[in-house]
Amino acid sequence: MPPKFKRHLNDDDVTGSVKSERRNLLEDDSDEEEDFFLRGPSGPRFGPRNEKIKHVQNQVDEVIDVMQENITKVIERGERLDELQDKSESLSDNATAFSNRSKQLRRQMWWRGCKIKAIMALVAVIVLLVIIILIVVKYHT
């Protein structure tokens, strides 16, 4: 039967195990090479390599600074892009509303033009009828 494992570990379980492992690894019986990898370089025992290490560390620090600046710029660019996207969506919505309103207004104006033409035609027909009736009445009497 397989062993039972905890499905969820809390922070104390993880932190406690890391501390105890570190303590076990850094005991007095470990040699200098292990200490170097676990604790990092210490002191002047590295001699001429110490300057090289400092130089490389300075270069790494410079690269880290540049990368942090780049990340900041990318985040700012992302924020500007989000703002630009919001503005473009707003502009698109306004353009759609303007288009719908202009179509509605065009239809209203077309109907108004049709009504005016119909009224003018009706007035012309009435005027012609009055003229024809007057002519017929004048010749009939």
From TrEMBL:
Keywords: Coiled coil, Golgi apparatus, Membrane, Phosphoprotein, Transmembrane, Transmembrane helix
Residues in the signal sequence: none
Subcellular location(s) per record: Golgi apparatus, trans-Golgi network membrane
Domain V-SNARE coiled-coil homology stretches: 52-112
Membrane-crossing segments per the record: 116-137
Protein origin, superkingdom: Eukaryota
Pfam family, one: Synaptobrevin
Membrane topology: Single-pass type IV membrane protein
Segments for region (Disordered): 1-50
PROSITE patterns per the UniProt record, alphabetical: SYNAPTOBREVIN, V_SNARE
GO cellular component: cell surface; phagocytic vesicle; presynaptic endosome membrane; SNARE complex; trans-Golgi network
UniProt record, GO biological process: cellular response to type II interferon; endocytic recycling; Golgi ribbon formation; Golgi to plasma membrane protein transport; regulation of Golgi to plasma membrane protein transport; SNARE complex assembly
PANTHER family: VESICLE-ASSOCIATED MEMBRANE PROTEIN 4 (PTHR46897)
SUBUNIT field: Identified in a complex containing STX6, STX12, VAMP4 and VTI1A. Interacts with BAIAP3; this interaction is increased in the presence of calcium.
Function statement: Involved in the pathway that functions to remove an inhibitor (probably synaptotagmin-4) of calcium-triggered exocytosis during the maturation of secretory granules. May be a marker for this sorting pathway that is critical for remodeling the secretory response of granule.
Stated family: Belongs to the synaptobrevin family.
Name this polypeptide is given: Vesicle-associated membrane protein 4
